[in-house]
Amino acid sequence: MPFDIKLVIPYLVVEIILKIFALVDLYKCDIQRLRLGKKFIWVLIILFINIFGPIGYFIFAKKND
C-alpha cells in the first residue's frame, strides 16, 4: 500500500462511523427537537459535508430544552 492510502483509510473509517451514528441518532430523534425542523435537511448535511456534517449535526442539530 502506498503511504497516502495508509493515511486515508483511517480517515474514511472514522467518517463512515460518524455518519452511521449521526443517521441512527437522527432517525431516533423527535422532529420537534431539531433546529432546522426537517430531518431531510440534516440527512443531506450528514451525507454530503464530509466529516464536518456529522460533527455539525451532533453540535448544532438539537435544541437545548
Automatic annotation (TrEMBL):
InterPro entries, sorted: CLS_N (IPR027379)
A UniProt-annotated Pfam family: PLDc_N
Gene Ontology cellular component terms for the protein in this record: plasma membrane
Superkingdom of origin organism: Bacteria
Subcellular location: Cell membrane
Topological relation to the membrane, as annotated: Multi-pass membrane protein
Main location: membrane
UniProt keyword terms in alphabetical order: Cell membrane, Membrane, Transmembrane, Transmembrane helix
Keyword check for Nuclease: no
Domain Cardiolipin synthase N-terminal: 17-60
Keyword Membrane: yes
Protein name, entry field: PLDc N-terminal domain-containing protein
Origin species: Ruminiclostridium herbifermentans
